[in-house]
Amino acid sequence: MSTKVTINRLATGVPGLDEVLGGGLPEFSFNLIAGPPGCGKTTLAHQMMFALATPERPALFFTVLGEPPLKMLRYQQQFDFFDSEAINHSVRYINLADDTLAGDLDEVLRRIVNEVETHSPALVFVDSFRSVVLASQTQDNPNNNLPQFVQQLGMLMTTWQATTFLIGEYFNETDTNPIFTVADGLIWLRQSVQRNSMVRKMEIMKMRGQPTLPGLHTFRIATSGIKIFAPAVLSPVEAPLEYPLQRLKMGVPQLDEMLGGGLPRGYSLLVAGPSGSGKSILASSFLAEGARNGETGVIAVFEQRPNHSQNATLATLINNGQVGLVDSRTPDLSIDEIVHLLLSEISRLKATRVVIDSLSGFELALAPTFREDFRESLSRMVTALTSVGVSVLMTSELEDRYTDLRFSPYGTAFLTDAIIVQRYIEVESRLLRIMAVVKVRASAHSDELRLYRIDDHGLQIGEMLSDQEGLLGGRPTRRHLGKDDR
Amino acid sequence: MSTLSEESRQIVASLAHRVGPNVDTARIAQAIVSTLQDMNAALTPIIGQQGVVALYRRSLHLCVSVHPRLADTYDSVQAALDLNALKSVLVEQSETDALFFGEVLLTTFYELLTTLIGPSLTARLLRDVWEPSLSDTPSQENSP
């Protein structure tokens, strides 16, 4: 039997935070929530407080200098988690402004300890701790007793079995601040501004005794409170391909033949082509074919006017609930937020087919700060989606260039398991369309360039233009007939 | 005041209860002051002494601007939350005037807090101020 201490982990009630913390908040830990003004520190504290406080084990919220409590109560009420009935019951506010103004840290500590002994709280918050620090520095004594104060506070709170949060404004994480050393956990909130877009990010710089998720995690503040978009959990071992490959029909029989019998299940497929080549039509026939076979799907549309780009088939599928629509026109999206939206829709509908239309729109929807990492972001999204077993069709706008054969403007072709490319060609003063399957991983596929046209029933694939050559150059010429053909 | 009719009724009832059956100016003054003390006691731990003083001063200011005839009498007490000063002014008024002022001041204070932190939280924080005085035992021993 293990005699090691078991640290309980509290569920914070903040969506995504428990995952980022590595399994919840360690009980009796002494934490610092830091960041510049307006980054959501007080909101985060309140959201956890209302989720965790009970009448038996209440929360004490010490307000020091800084945001006047009257204003804090006024604004925090705007969030759904705020419960007036909890005040003076499971949540107690205690104002320490006068004690702090005097600059006597011993007195502040005495007041805090006194209240903690009276109420035996499970949670203690001190907002804003920065002002305690500043007040102590205005003392005549230049060697202020802050390190000692923090040390004592940390020890006392843990001994009294209280999980503690100090909330403070810190702009520089390299400050040699004694709090950083004493604290068990450091939660850093940031606002990253680029051009005129702003993205909120959270970093767990430190959390003793547990594996936190490293890096910056985006979050939003809505009326429901803070919501953190933790990266999707990927299963460490990907299931190996099973042979024979199970294949999905695309809704275009000739295309299934070209793919070697359909798109292998769990594959990602890139459909690249110029504007108007029928990528979205292919995507909706992919979803419609799924619906015909009793499968559900999800489509993420990143267009400025999604309702205008929908065709009738797709609209019907969405109305019938056979296809879920992820239509986030929220500005400044992060990749984790999009993956989060997609995955929750996939699990809600138990979807097997996913369409992202299009990557170009997706890139525009991302906050500028993420565009530099677009390839990485895309790679993470594809991995996150295929690791839950869905098959993904992505469309990519392709500028028609007749001098080179490109599949996507992002150098992302390697990310996908299969690629279909569409082109325009000029033959006898007509603009014709051709399509080819470029790649299907671990599967034989056609190498033909096939004519196709779009009519009311969708894509109709025709024959090869075997008497023409130079098709990929866009201006094919009639092939010079050899001796054998005469 | 129509939106707070229930609350103002409660405030008026609570004040009358604190005054008790034998109405005189001294009792009225004492009831008003003790109610303010209870409100102060309920709010100071949460919003701080300075917050309560600011609310009190704003309430007095509003009372006087809505009822200009009160201006001459109460201008002198606007400086701070000096309840002794308020009491000494109140005892010089007629019973009707003192009671009227008390009702207006307490209701204004309550309304002001409501505009800032909303009706439910205001009710929650000040519940204990009204409730004991609405019980059967008259509570007249609230003197400082």
Number of strands of chain A: 24
Overall pLDDT of chain A, averaged? Answer: 85
Rg of chain B, rounded, reads 14 Å
Strand content of chain B: under 5%
- Give the averaged pLDDT of chain B, no decimals: 83
Residue ranges of chain B: pLDDT <50 for 5 or more in a row? 136-144
Helix content of chain A: 25-40%
How many helices of chain B in DSSP terms?
Answer: 6
What is the string of helix and strand elements of chain B?
HHHHHH
- What is the percent of helical residues of chain B? over 70%
Tell me the domain tally of chain B: 1
Protein name (chain A): non-specific serine/threonine protein kinase
Domain KaiC (chain A): 8-242, 246-475
Organism (chain A): Pseudomonas mohnii
Enzyme class (chain A): transferase
What is the topology?
The complex is a heterodimer of chains A (486) and B (144).
Chain A: E1 9-10, H1 17-21, E2 25-26, E3 30-34, H2 41-52, E4 59-63, H3 69-76, E5 91-95, H4 97-101, H5 105-119, E6 123-127, H6 129-137, H7 146-159, E7 163-168, H8 178-182, E8 185-194, E9 197-207, E10 217-222, E11 225-228, E12 247-248, H9 253-258, E13 263-264, E14 268-273, H10 279-292, E15 297-301, H11 306-309, H12 312-319, E16 323-326, H13 335-349, E17 353-357, H14 359-365, H15 368-371, H16 374-387, E18 391-397, E19 418-427, E20 430-440, E21 450-455, E22 458-464, E23 468-469, E24 477-478
Parallel strand pairs in A: 3-7, 3-8, 4-5, 4-6, 6-7, 14-18, 14-19, 15-16, 15-17, 17-18
Antiparallel strand pairs in A: 1-2, 8-9, 9-10, 10-11, 12-13, 19-20, 20-21, 21-22, 23-24
Helix pairs in contact in A: 5-7, 13-16
Chain B: H1 5-19, H2 25-66, H3 71-74, H4 83-90, H5 95-117, H6 119-130
Helix pairs in contact in B: 1-2, 1-5, 2-4, 2-5, 2-6, 5-6
